[in-house]
Amino acid sequence: MRMAVLARSALIGLVLATPGAAAAIDNEPGQVLGEATVIDGETLLVGRWPVRLWGYDAPPKGLACRDDERYDCGREAVERLKHFAQGRQVRCEVKRRGTVNVGRCEALSIEMYNAHRVDRWSDLAFDLIEEGSGVERTSESRGHYAEASATAEVGKAGVWASTTWRGDRPQ
User: Fold this and answer.
1) Model-level pTM?
2) pLDDT tens-digit readout, 114-134
3) 102 - beta bridge partners?
4) Which residues contact 72 (CB under 8 A, 6 or more apart)?
5) Distances (CA, A) of 40 to 5, 75, 105, 118, 135
6) What are the phi and psi torsion angles at 134 (to 5°)?
7) Cβ 46 vs Cβ 101: under 8 Å
């Protein structure tokens, strides 16, 4: 009996040490849910799981992507992701697992409307692409964020004001 309890404890420990399996235990299969910490311009730590935003490509820190060389659009991408996600509840539908999971993530914002609480989940990649903080990673998303991308491009928002960086898009 004691050996069975020890074996079961070892198995649970092994499962919890495996990122994909633990996420499935902690939440619904294929999802992670938790408080977000921004790692870089396109990666969050959700609970204890690193997740790169699916379909989104942020410029690297230190890249001056406007004519004004002092404007670091990589640092701006980090700050904008912090604005949308840092310290908030985030849920991600994990599409691919690995050292860093890749997932479609939504952040929770709680708003009051006529004295009633309204929970609103918003797609982080869509919001960031639409405002020009980064671009659609078309090699993954296959045009899923085309509307947001077009809005930013037409308005020359953020990185679209640049002539030097477009992520995985041809120049």
Assistant:
1) 0.76
2) 777 778 899 999 999 999 999
3) 52, 96
4) 61, 62, 63, 64
5) 42, 9, 15, 29, 15
6) -160, -170
7) no
